[in-house]
Amino acid sequence: MNVNLKKEVCGPCKKFVNIGQPILECEICNIAIHTKCYKVAKFCHINGCWTCDKCAHEIEPRYNPFSTIQGYFASDKFYDDHDTYDDNILQQASVILNNCKKYNINDFAEALKTINHAHNDQPTATPQAPQLSSLFLNIDGHASNFDQFLTEIKRLDHNFSIIGLAETNTDASLKQLYNIPNYNSYYQNPIENKHKGSGVALYVHNSLNVTVEESLSDTTPDIES
Fold first, then answer.
1. DSSP assignment, residue 135?
2. Domain extents in the chain
3. Sheet holding 183-188: strands in order across?
4. Gap between the Cα atoms of 137 and 155, Å rounded
């Protein structure tokens, strides 16, 4: 018998974590607590991982609904139908979302300059594919925020190919009031009788040809497109 074996102690209740007891483990630092103590310990679920309070403050929250797919594809359970999804596509999407960076407006402008210079410095003899870029923003109402948005994209000094705006709170009949120079706009009416938190718009640069697919353009209580 190893008399020097030390049991792990649950921080919140100060009691030993015994074999067979339900536990919750921080997936960053591996500290373990009793599952029933998770609220007192302020354990939380961030980016698809359970973390202790200390580690939670060191993690940058990010949106990635694909972060948990690795375990799914590693499963050998007969009832897990792996053919339902394209493993490579979902993993690529997960990597892209994990590598997203947060910028303030000044850093974002500098990052765009770097991209523009790299594209423009390519040898002219080399055929260049069109540089497609997109910007999406929840604008939270055209009436109060559209003018500020115009000022901010002017500071970026970059012609995005496509600009998507959500929660415009604006009917399609009023789209001429909200122009972006050198862009064509396409609006979807907000959900009926919903005066806030609805309405989507798409601005496409004049250099691109656009065809509206009516079968995909719709407004329902669940989705706006």
1. E
2. 1-61, 62-102, 105-115+132-216
3. 134-138, 162-166, 200-205, 183-188
4. 16
Q: Which backbone phi and psi does 44 adopt, to 5 degrees?
A: -145, 165
CATH class of the structural domain 1-61:
alpha beta
What is the per-residue DSSP string for 19-80? TTS-EEE-TTT--EEEGGGHHHHT-EEETTEEE-HHHHTTS-----TTTTHHHHHH---TT-
Q: What share of the chain is helix, strand, coil (3-state, %, to 5)?
A: 30, 15, 50
Measured CA distances, 164 to 40, 160, 184, 196 (Å): 42, 10, 12, 17
Tell me the whole-structure pTM to 2 decimals: 0.66
Weakly modelled stretches of the chain, pLDDT under 50? 1, 78-79, 125
Distance CA 67, CA 58 (A): 18
- Return the structure tokens found at 181: 């120079």
Q: Using CA atoms, how far apart are residues 214 and 209, in angstroms rounded to an integer?
A: 16
Give residue 207's identity as a one-letter amino acid code.
Answer: S
CATH 3.40.1190.10 is held by the domain 105-115+132-216: no
One fold for 1-61 and 105-115+132-216: no
At 129 the pLDDT is 59
